[in-house]
Specification:
The chain has 399 residues and is α/β, with parallel strands linked by helices. It has 13 helices and 15 strands. 42% of the residues lie in helices and 19% in strands. The longest helix is centred in the first third of the chain and has 22 residues. It is globular.
Length: 399
């Protein structure tokens, strides 16, 4: 009898343990408004960024800004008393890796949202994962026109958002700047044909420039990783042009600008936010970076107290001047925290709804409402460089 009684007690304990285990299973937060099992006093947020590889400068800069925002929020008590727990993973600047990272963050780490990646291609690679798991993803710098917040069939991707304007706006902005601010009539385009970013910018610049009386004298292309642009640049000798538009990233743009100046091609150079990296100065050298203008999300010349407080805080934390990706990352960290607070829950459906309903969010990179297409309605800035340093800034409002 004693042996049977003992075995019965053990069986009851085991059954109770199994029931308790079933009741506490983790989930992705999309659970009808209940708090996820990853902790009632914490909020897990995924960080899927390019921390190594070809565009690590963008990724690391963005993450530095995000972490500054999270540190400030946690120091002030978190989100309604909940501590933000960032889950940071390097996607190595590869879209396939970004997909794998997104899958891990959403299915294993059970994050309530994913921030990043920085570039359009890698961010788009994570969209099917987000849609399948119903976890919101947000990029502060994926500027591609197509396939980001709106699918090819015209339907808005419910769980996909961004904090930046798109390539159409940048291309139109820089064409208008060339025509109106630089009085340009003839332009050359040297574009990155290996990226949607470069192709989208070139397309919109050309359309706007020609529609307003400008002429594209010639177009030339290169691919990511190219180092020698002398053949392209030599081909420009003897041609009549007022500006050169380089829609691409800093790695190649820095070399193109340096080699152009070495060949005594001194026409103003125009670009977009892909120019914004300290590496541009390292590659081109300060003497080459005169009469260089690019569209961006933020300028340190802005006297807004919110901007100046951010710059001061960033310098104190990291010991250097922040760039636009730092500022975008900072806004991204504040933005997701604001949405979670307004949602009043860690539930992914509630957070997604709060993101879509955002009104008058005030950020370092500008104030905005979230549009119905999950794109913010905000201004761009055109920055002018002198000896590699920001010297001028012009704000351009969306029309």
């Amino acid at each position: 009898m004693k042996k049977k009684t003992f075995l019965s007690i053990i069986s009851i304990i085991m059954i109770m343990g199994l029931l308790a285990g079933c009741g506490s299973g983790a989930n992705n937060g999309n659970n009808g408004g209940k708090e996820p099992a990853n902790g009632a006093n914490e909020v897990k947020i995924g960080i899927n960024y390019e921390l190594s590889g070809g565009v690590a400068s963008y990724g690391q800069s963005s993450v530095d800004g995000i972490m500054m925002a999270f540190d400030e929020i946690n120091a002030a008590g978190g989100i309604d008393g909940k501590k933000i727990v960032p889950v940071k993973i390097d996607n190595k600047s590869e879209p396939a890796e970004a997909t794998s990272v997104a899958t891990k963050l959403m299915t294993q780490d059970k994050v309530v949202a994913q921030l990043g990646p920085a570039t359009s291609g890698s961010f788009m690679a994570t969209i099917p994962v987000a849609m399948g798991n119903k976890v919101p993803i947000i990029s502060a710098s994926a500027t591609a026109d197509k396939g980001v917040t709106v699918a090819d069939n015209g339907k808005v991707n419910d769980y996909v958002f961004r904090l930046c304007f798109n390539d159409s706006f940048q291309g139109v902005t820089m064409a208008s700047f060339a025509l109106n601010n630089l009085s340009a009539k003839n332009a050359v385009i040297i574009k990155d044909t290996s990226s949607d970013y470069g192709k989208g910018l070139a397309e919109n610049f050309k359309a706007t420039f020609e529609a307003n009386g400008g002429k594209i004298v010639t177009e030339a292309g290169y691919v990511k990783g190219d180092k020698d642009f002398k053949a392209i640049l030599t081909g420009l000798k003897g041609k009549d042009f007022d500006v050169i538009f380089i829609p691409g990233y800093y790695e190649e743009a820095g070399l193109i600008i340096k080699q152009a100046r070495d060949l005594e091609i001194n026409a103003p150079v125009l670009g977009a936010d892909g120019f914004d990296s300290p590496v541009l100065l390292e590659l081109a050298g300060e003497k080459a970076l005169n009469d260089v203008y690019y569209s961006n999300h933020y300028s340190s010349l802005d006297k807004d107290p919110l901007v100046q407080d951010f710059i001061k805080g960033y310098k104190e934390k990291y010991g250097q001047e922040p760039n636009a990706f730092n500022a975008l990352g900072y806004d991204l960290g504040k933005f997701i925290a604001d949405a979670i607070k307004r949602a009043g829950s860690n539930d992914t459906a509630a957070i997604t709804k709060a993101l879509a309903e955002t009104k008058d969010f005030k950020g370092v990179t500008g104030s905005f409402d979230m549009g119905e297409d999950h794109n913010p309605v905000k201004a761009a800035v055109v920055i002018g460089l002198e000896n590699g340093v920001q010297a001028t800034s012009v704000k351009v409002e969306p029309k």
